[in-house]
C-alpha cells in the first residue's frame, strides 16, 4: 500500500525507487528494514517492510550488520520450514546473532525489526541470496550450529520437519555431508498424521 501511495508502481520495484522510498521514510524521521540504501537490492512485490522509530544507518557498523543480516536470512529460512517462525525461534536467532557478531544496541534494534518483517514474508523469499558456499569453513560451522539450534528450539523434530530442514540446508548451499553432520544430533521422530 505504501508503494502505491508513493506511486512507485506495481510488481518488482526498481532499485532507484526502493532507495527513494527508504529516503522518504528516513526524511520522515523513521527507519526502514530492509533498507535498499544498505542492501543495494530492490524490494519484491508484497515484500514485508518494517518501518519503525529507530537508529539511522549512520549509527551502525555496516560490515558487521550486513554479516548479521546474512546469517539472519539463513536462520530464518530454517525456522520457516514448518511454515511459521515462532517467537521462541526469533528470540533464539537474535540472541545468537547478538552474541556472535557483538552487535551494538542500534544494530540489534534494526536486526529485530528486520527479523519481524522477514517472519511475515513468504519462506521461499528467505532463501534468496543466502548461499553459504561463499563463507569460510569456520563461518560455515558457526552457521551450522545456528541451524541446529533453530531446528531444535521448539522441541522434537519429526521426520517431515527433519527432511524439510535437510532440503533447506541443501538449497542454502551446504554440501550433503555437511548437512548430515550438522543434523546428526537430531533424531527425527516418526511423522504423525
How would you describe this structure to a colleague?
By secondary structure, this protein is mostly helical. The protein has helices at residues 2-5, 15-27, 36-39, 62-79, 87-101, 105-119, 137-152, 159-172, 176-183; strands at residues 31-33, 50-52. Strands 1-2 form a two-stranded antiparallel ribbon. Residues 1-8 have low confidence and may be disordered.
How would you concisely characterize the structure shown here?
With 193 residues, the protein is mainly alpha-helical.
Structural descriptors:
193 residues, two-stranded antiparallel sheet, 3% strand, disordered N terminus
Topology:
Elements: H1 2-5, H2 15-27, E1 31-33, H3 36-39, E2 50-52, H4 62-79, H5 87-101, H6 105-119, H7 137-152, H8 159-172, H9 176-183
Antiparallel strand pairs: 1-2
| Category by helix and strand content | mainly alpha
Strand content: under 5%
Total DSSP helices: 9
- What form results from the Cα inertia axes? globular
Unreliable parts: 1-8
- Termini distance? 39 Å
The proportion of residues forming helix, as a percent range, comes to 55-70%
Mean pLDDT: 83
Rg, Cα atoms, Å? 17 Å
Tell me the quaternary state. single chain
